[in-house]
Amino acid sequence: MIHNGFWVEGGEILGWMEDGHRPISSPIEKENEKWRNRTKWVWGLFLAGVGFYRSAKIRYPG
Question: Counting CB atoms within 10 angstroms of each CB, which of 11, 12, 38, 47 has the fewest?
């Protein structure tokens, strides 16, 4: 979550750079970022699927 221009996550506050991206220092951070983005995609697709399923169920009962 973004809080006053800082990235607050898991109790740690990391300052943002000017372009709005978090500074990634170590390879571990890069790996974490990759997984975070992947998780966002998975959740997005999952929620979109659930929403589509619900709307389709309302439109076409049974």
Answer: 11
Show me where the domains of the chain are located.
25-62
Distance, CA of 42 to chain centre: 9
**Is the per-residue pLDDT at 46 higher than 90?**
yes
* Rounded Cα–Cα distance for residues 10 and 55 (Å): 34
Question: Are β-strands 6-9 and 2-3 bridged in parallel, bridged antiparallel, or unpaired?
Answer: antiparallel
Task: Please report, as a single letter, which amino acid is at residue 53.
Answer: Y
The residue type at 6 = F
Ramachandran quadrant class, 11 (left: phi over 0; alpha: psi -120 to 50; beta: rest): left
| pTM summary value | 0.40
Query: What is the rounded average pLDDT of the residues 38-58?
Result: 88
